[in-house]
Amino acid sequence: MKKKLVISTGAGISAESGITTFRDAGGLWENYPVMDVASADGFARNPALIHEFYNARRRQLFEVEPNAAHRAIVELEQWYDVNVITQNVDDLHERAGSSSVLHLHGELMKIRSIPHPERIYTLDRHNCETTVDSRDEYGDPVRPHIVFFQEAVPNIEPAINLVSEADIFVVIGTSLVVYPAAGLLEFVRRGVPVYYIDPHPAQVPGWVDVIPEKASVGMAKLVKCLRPE
Ligand code: APR
Questions:
Q1: pTM over 0.70
Q2: Which of 23, 150, 210 to mutate to test the pocket of ligand 1 (most atoms within 8 A of CB)?
């Protein structure tokens, strides 16, 4: 029976693929007022701006590739039962080949009906832009399948279950400022090894093993230490 390895990732793991993070210098929130482009109030106030913001982020997705850190996570699937929990809305974990990815904040390549949120549609690169006039097959308006600020995080329960059953927990590339994602650390069973890979790590409890490296370097080190002899 393979040990359960749970890996929680943030924007930092996609930085080396060329996707800017949110809160580093030059980050996304320096150029866009977050409450205008990523909140429920913002969507009510100016949905056209939010459709365009996510169209621009989708267009960028087609110019980037998974990086060595994404691939190292896939490599660990040889020896561990790996579950990825990500705050990221990009599809780089899936494109790298990860077999289990749980998105906490939604997915860029998905949209959903506004009146019927259970109707979720996957866009493709030839049809990836939406506007306020976009309609689904039932004629209903659609929105990005993204968890905006001020909205609930429906996948936090399954994420907590995964972390509470983990034999090893790894956190990569997140500033740990956005809850409930940042609180996953609290659900690790006592004695379970926890690693945190981040070049500018946030303050974490002493029992967390901090690897102050960028994701590709930190994951290379971690694979060396987690790979069975
Ligand atoms: N490798 C690893 N980590 C990196 C790298 C890198 N090459 N470059 C930057 N980082 C780290 C930064 O040090 C920082 O700790 O990535 C983290 C990025 O933090 P944020 O920009 O706050 O991103 P994240 O923590 O994922 O944000 C959480 O906030 O705006 C919301 O919904 C959005 O999911 C996002 C959430």
A1: yes
A2: 23
Residue type, 134: S
> What whole-number distance in Å separates Cα of residue 142 and Cα of residue 12?
29
140: left (phi over 0), alpha (psi -120 to 50) or beta: beta
Please state the φ and ψ torsions of residue 57, each to the nearest 5 degrees: -70, -30
Residue 51 has pLDDT above 90, yes or no: yes
Residues in the chain: 229
User: Is there an atom of ligand 1 within 6 Å of 70 CB?
Assistant: no
pLDDT tens, 168-224? 999 999 999 999 999 999 999 999 999 999 999 999 999 999 999 999 999 999 999
Backbone angles phi, psi at 161, to 5 degrees: -60, -45
